[in-house]
Design a protein that fits this description.
Length: about 240
Amino acid sequence: MTPAARALQLAVAALGLAGVVFGVRQAVGPYAEISAYRHASPCVGTPAPDCVRTVDAVVLSKRIVVTTHQDPPTPYQPPPAPPAPPMGPFHVAPPLAVHLPLRADTTTTSYLVKVRTTEARTEELDVSKSFYEAAKKNDHVAVSYWKHHVVRAALGEHTQEYPPGDWLTGSWTILWAGLLIFLSAATFGRVPLFAGWMTFIGGWILFSLLDVWRSSLIVLPVLTTIAYTVAAFTLRPRRW
């Protein structure tokens, strides 16, 4: 490997390592919040700062908010040119056509229910469609608080969760991408680059869609590091 290629490899590895450090620092707080919330017990007697307090609330009103996101226009693709008209004494010009760019807008629908608790607090809850349809004015809703934040709302058989740690997914994604960038640079020439992309996609799906944050946040990066290290010592270097 030439000195220039070696310097580039070190720069990419340093970039990935910086992403790992940044992701870890950003994930520590949300991870601790989620862990503390999942171990919190219901408040009994005198409320403790870290217990889950449930209060009664009544439905005041509800509304639907539809947000339209304008996607960039689709570039115009001209149709194939028509065949040339036959030669003759007269030439008829084709009709003038005005082609407008196509725009595929996407919409997001939010179902909001406003409630007032027995503590005179007013909350507007973002709920599911079934929760929204079941909610009627003056219905009673059980609203749960943890550290002064709404974490759950229940109306009959309908339950809406609002877990803390909103930044955990983003922080873990940065950590995961930085780790794979670092490992790919460290094992460049031995482990195919597409393996890193496939690992990133698979790990993100496990983390965000399968809701296995506890295991994937710790176990998956460790196993991936071990796999890359073993590959670096066992696979032959490839010539580029």
